[in-house]
Amino acid sequence: METVLRGLSPEACLIYLDDIIIVGRDFEEHLSNLRKVLEKLKQANLKLNPAKCNLFLREVSYLGHIISAEGVRTDPPKVAVVKEWSQSRNVHELRSFLGLCTYYRRFIKGFSLIARPLHRLTEHKRPFVWTEECEVAFTSLKEALTSAPILSYPDPDKQFISDTDASHASVGAVLSQEIDGQECVIAYWSKCLSKPERNYCVTSKKLLAIVKAVENFHSYVYGRKFASLTWLLNFKNPEGQIARWIQKLQEQLPHSNDCQTKLTKLQPHPDGKGGGVRNVEQNSLPARSPHGKDAISLQADGKGRKAAFASLMACFVPYFVVRDYRRKIEFFGCF
């Protein structure tokens, strides 16, 4: 189908195997895109089954999601299966449940941390013993899925905000954008740390969270400029693990440069319990943050290496800025 509809942009239609979604910002554009798709199908001598066609809908169910003008949300009939799921009796049943939940993990804040007790039960040679901790995780996942939020569509012309955080057991991130004066979530991401990663120091875990978040949100942030990472990307003679992480960041963010930087105290947004890091692309620096307490701790008005160094130091030595370990540090950058 991609070959048949070659030349049509994603703003006109979306394709998955033999399923086609035709979109438009208004009715006239929708008609125009519909005409283009039908002409392409006619040229390929393909026919459509009218019984399987739905025209001029304001929202559509697609691959387990409801897609509408407001954003993307989980499909209620699909999620209802999770709500009625009974307690798993063996590893096979538990893996089936986790597989379904993992499909919707981008809707669940702190998914890895919540599901960690259940994932441990699926480890090789581990006895299958359903504990109270597993029951809490099982119930929490079902509640999180049945009350999942609507995720907004990314706007490439607007700034992206990346909140990352790290705890002893996991790292997490939230990608969002400010739309109509309100910060809207585009996607959640989280990952449980392996045994070697859990032995990292606090600063290494925070850096790992940034690197993994940039990798996961590659399709959104590739080529973007984040001021708080400038000094790190220009680090002289890096060695070992730091060098490998810097190389990964340079591959994803080749154009990051010196920008204005602002540091703010903030309650943690992702699933970790420690201090977090915020990378924001923007020209003006807001006075308040929507995620929590926002007393300004440090302002780096200078440009270049000093400003970026101040930003990085605030990330790597968070406790010299804030006393409350649960508060986080927020970075603001610009294009």
TrEMBL record:
InterPro entries: DNA/RNA_pol_sf, Retrovirus_Pol_polyprotein, Rev_trsase/Diguanyl_cyclase, RT_dom, RT_RNaseH_2. Residues 261-296 are annotated as: Disordered. Its EC number is 2.7.7.49. Residues 1-67 form the Reverse transcriptase domain. Keywords: Endonuclease, Hydrolase, Multifunctional enzyme, Nuclease, Nucleotidyltransferase, RNA-directed DNA polymerase, Transferase. GO terms for molecular function: endonuclease activity; RNA-directed DNA polymerase activity. This is RNA-directed DNA polymerase. The lineage of its organism: Eukaryota, Metazoa, Ecdysozoa, Arthropoda, Chelicerata. The gene is pol.
